[in-house]
Structure formats: C-alpha cells, structure tokens
Design brief:
302 residues, Farnesyl Diphosphate Synthase, mainly alpha
Length: 302
C-alpha cells in the first residue's frame, strides 16, 4: 500500500468515525419533548443529524488526539463547534441572507419547516453549543471549560464568523481587493476552523506557547478551505455539492477565483496546503490525520 493509499484510508476512517460519533451524540443530546417545543427539537435534529462532512469536529478530535486527550470529551467539544456551524448554515440559507433551497442534498430548514422555526432552531443550536462546553461532562477542570467557551465565542461572533458574514453581505455592493477578501474569509470561514484546532489543544492542556505551529496550520487550512470552496462554486457539480453553486458570481461578489483566476487560485490553495503540512514537521506519524485533512480540504469535490 502506498503512502497516498494509507493517508486516504486514514482520512476515510477518521471521517466515518467522527460522523458516527457526532450523529450519535446529537441524537442522544437533543431529545424531542412531548410539549409545544417538539417542532423546534425536530428542526434542530433535522439540521444537525445526518448531514455535513464534520471537518471541524474531526480537526478538533485529531488535534486533541495528537496529545492523548480523552476521545469522548473531544467528541462533546466537536458537538459544540458543529452546533455553531450548523446554526450558521441555517441562518445563512434564510431568505434574508442567501435564500437557498438546498443544503446537504435536502431542503433547507426554512423550506422543510418555516422561517420562524429556522431562526429559532439556529438560535437554540448556538445556545446548545455553550451549554455543552460549560458542562462538567466536557471537562472536570473549570478553567479548561472557560477557555473552551472563550475560544468558541470569539471565533463565532463579530470578531469571527458573524463579522465575516457581515463583510460578505457588504461584498454584494462593494468592490473588495484581495487583501479584503482574505480578511473576510479568515473571519467567515477560517475563524471556526482555527477554533477547532485551538479547542483540541485546549482540551489536551497544551500551553499557549506550544500552540504556535498549530495556529499556523489552522490559519493556512482556513484560507485553503475557502479557496477550494470558491473553486467548487465556480466549476463544481451541484449534485455532488448538494447545494446551489455559482451564486457568488450571480451576486457580483469578488472571490479568490474572480481575483486570481482558477489556475492561480488552485496553485495558491495547494501552496497553503503544503505550508500547513510543514507546520506539523515536529510531529511524527501521530499527526498523519491532520496532514491528510489538509490535503482533503484542497482536493475535495463537495
């Protein structure tokens, strides 16, 4: 078996395992009440279970595993960061935002239910994320729990994902240069990916001064992820993606592809992937899953 085959198998097994674990955790942690809240719970489960690649939970679990952290606790943290990601997709799909009809190959939440339920389901999933992180079941150490909450909160709000989304809305009526698009995507997409790596290190009690290389890795895969997304939006297959494509061009938004062209954007994504992998040089084979994830982020077709 070649090195590439081994990496592919490692990644395939890692994704399959985290998908099972995250779905199982959501299923157990989001029970359906018998009172009038039932539609809300049903909507949360519809959005959270059985969809998505679970890249963020896998990044978190792989980073935590690099230092021998408890897998069950890493999965709980993965549920938290995936809850924030799912809530962002629910709100992003709403008519007041991107007005999408399809997500992960099925109707978006506001189409399957209604707009009000979709807004509330997103709100509830955001709150649920911090309920999970602040629970002693996630870590017996209150300082670790507080640091986890702080990391995810900072990555999710105006200084992270939500701020990037605001810039993305502004991009429809403004002409952004490459530096501004890079900043936009560092917030909108990169912040939550970086938080996944950071939270894995926090859970494993890696001191701040020992996380520099991990932050470099996270920064590079965050930008590579968005360039790959822009390439998929430009030339991908909607059936494989499970969502509408080519919407950025239709909205007149500048992207890495529109500014660099497909060939230069693809080369930039590959350079970032190689740079991300180089940040892990101090680690041995125990970091192979993180290396494989960096390559997958650039080479995926959905």
């Amino acid at each position: 078996m070649t090195t590439t085959d081994t990496a592919d198998t490692l990644l395939k097994d890692g994704l399959a395992a985290i998908q099972r674990e995250i779905d199982s955790a959501f299923n157990a942690m989001l029970p359906e009440p018998t009172d009038a809240r039932a539609p809300l719970a049903h909507a949360m489960r519809y959005a959270a279970i059985g969809g998505g690649k679970r890249v963020r939970p896998l990044l978190l679990a792989a980073t935590a595993g690099l230092y021998g952290a408890d897998r069950a606790q890493a999965v709980r943290c993965g549920v938290a960061i995936e809850s924030v990601h799912v809530y962002s997709l629910i709100h992003d799909d709403l008519p007041c935002m991107d007005d999408d009809d399809l997500r992960h190959g099925k109707p978006t939440l506001h189409k399957a239910f209604d707009e009000a339920t979709a807004v509330l389901a997103g709100d509830a999933l955001q709150c649920f994320a911090f309920e999970v992180l602040s629970s002693p079941a996630t870590s017996h150490d209150p300082f670790t729990r507080a640091e986890l909450v702080h990391a995810l909160a900072c990555a999710s709000g105006a200084g992270g994902m939500v701020g990037g989304q605001m810039m993305d809305i502004a991009a429809e009526t403004a002409s952004f240069d490459l530096a501004t698009i890079t900043r936009l995507q560092q917030l909108k997409t990169g912040a939550l990916l970086a938080a996944a790596v950071e939270m894995g290190a926090i859970l494993a009690h890696v001191p701040i001064e020992g996380r520099t290389h991990l932050r470099g890795y996270a920064r590079d895969i965050g930008l590579a992820f968005q360039i790959a997304d822009d390439l998929l939006d430009h030339e991908g297959d909607e059936a494989a993606a499970g969502k509408a494509l080519r919407k950025d061009a239709g909205a007149g938004k500048e992207t890495f592809v529109s500014l660099l062209g497909p060939d230069r954007a693809r080369a930039q994504a590959r350079m970032l992937m190689e740079q991300a992998v180089s940040h892990l040089d101090r680690h041995g084979r125990e970091a192979d899953l993180l290396r494989a994830l960096a390559r997958y982020i650039v080479e995926r077709d959905r």
